[in-house]
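INTERNAL AUDIT FORM
Audit reference: QA-55
Scope: verify that the stored structure record matches its stored sequence.
Auditor: D.O.
Record contents follow.
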Amino acid sequence: MATQNGIIKINGQLGELVFYQRGKKAVVRQKAGNKQQTEASKKSSADFGSATRNAAYIRKAFAPLVKLYAYGDLVNRLNKRLIEIFKTIAPEQAGRKKLVDGHLALLEGFEFNASTPLKRLWLKETVLSLEPDGLVKLILPKGELKSLLKPYPKATEAHLQVMGFHFELADNGSYEIIEVNDLVVPVNVTHFPKTVLPIVLNHQGDKALIIAMGISFFTGGHRSADRRYYACKIIHALHLKDGVVVNFVAQPQAEKVVAEQGNRLNWEVEEE
């Protein structure tokens, strides 16, 4: 970009040059050329678009939690996480990569609030149990409350909020958004009982099951707006095939050939 210094200032296009006003300055730049994309860059662009569309799909499913907990450019962070998942798919599928072939479990641990991880406020991991009849159980462990959560200093109660997203991994597949009533926990109790959330799902086919959990603290009916005291993350992300967890198998990497080196030293075993 260059500045126009003449008495007469030009606006518009002249050949390959574009003249325009930028603030109080008259500037000129070269017209952008139409660059031909290589086949590899076309494939990369297609896969990038697919990854970001899936990120938007997931973000919209969890819209209520996004509204409550998002902090720290959630959109770009979630896009980046989906791109990482797409990178786990075999290079031979470049240009036609699909989420069904990626390492979906990499979504686990994604924090909605980049400032505060969930484990800082809710101190124990949840357990997800899959039953043969399609019943899924999300289990919160029992224990002394002080060993399970770290409350806002003036809080009177904690609200645990859970949502689920269950969808077919095929293109244009059906989906189900699982909404759950808040679990209200008074912070003045000493013991928290084992608590189970039963979810009945149809697992036929290739399905994804993503569950997110958030925690907020309330004082006299008012939610704390201090981002140090609210958190939410994806706690489970599973690829299910007819109700059975599909464990991702990474593609083998090309073996590195190490050149032979002359005059190498050898180990010697000395007997005592």
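Auditor finding: record pair retrieved intact. Confidence is low (pLDDT under 50) at residues 254-258.
Action required: none
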